């Protein structure tokens, strides 16, 4: 009778461990999905930052063109004589001022975009590590769960465990 009680207790414990392992596997699978979704989001962030860098490049080209126009206006001021020189000089000064402001703003944007790109790269690397670790835990959890659900009837020393059957795929993360 005591052997029967001991076996019943062992079976109960194995059943509990099996349920906990199945629940742990589900949690790990969900974490893996969330990490994958986050990695995709980080990739989108990096792509957006690259697009911003392209816009900054075009704004920089416009600022350089504005500088050239200001230089041309300065040159024309000399040829227009006294009457047009004052007006042309004022216009050239305004264009130069706008060009300088645009250049400064563009440099600030470039620095910001560079920081965003660096952060996005670090974010992608960190998420990659998380996915790698969660996948390893997922594999261990799956193997343990299969061992608990289908324990071997007889194990010879050095015999590898049978491959675990595939579990149902997890639903995609939001």
Notes on the protein architecture:
The structure is a single chain. The protein is 84% helix and 0% strand. The chain has 174 residues and is mostly helical. The longest helix is centred in the N-terminal third of the chain and has 78 residues, at 2-79. It is rod-shaped, with a radius of gyration of 34 Å. The relative contact order is 0.14. The mean pLDDT is 75.
Oligomeric organization of the protein chains:
single chain
Uncertain residue segments: none
> Mind summarizing the main beta sheet?
none
Radius of gyration: 34 Å
Structural class: mainly alpha
How would you state the average pLDDT, rounded?
75
Q: Give the helix level as a range of percent.
A: over 70%
How many H/I helices?
2
H/E element sequence: HH
Head-to-tail CA distance between termini: 53 Å
């Amino acid at each position: 009778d005591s052997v029967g009680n001991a076996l019943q207790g062992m079976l109960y414990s194995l059943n509990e461990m099996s349920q906990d392992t199945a629940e742990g596997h589900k949690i790990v699978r969900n974490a893996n999905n969330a990490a994958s979704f986050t990695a995709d989001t980080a990739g989108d962030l990096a792509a957006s930052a690259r697009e911003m860098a392209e816009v900054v490049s075009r704004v920089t080209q416009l600022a350089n063109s504005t500088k050239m126009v200001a230089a041309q206006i300065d040159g024309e001021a000399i040829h227009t004589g006294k009457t047009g020189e004052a007006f042309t000089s004022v216009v050239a000064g305004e264009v130069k001022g706008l060009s300088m402001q645009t250049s400064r703003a563009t440099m600030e944007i470039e620095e910001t975009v560079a920081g965003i790109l660096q952060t996005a790269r670090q974010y992608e690397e960190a998420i990659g590590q998380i996915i790698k670790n969660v996948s390893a835990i997922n594999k261990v959890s799956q193997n343990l769960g299969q061992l608990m659900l289908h324990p071997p009837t007889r194990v010879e020393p050095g015999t590898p465990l049978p491959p675990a059957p595939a579990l149902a795929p997890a639903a995609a993360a939001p």
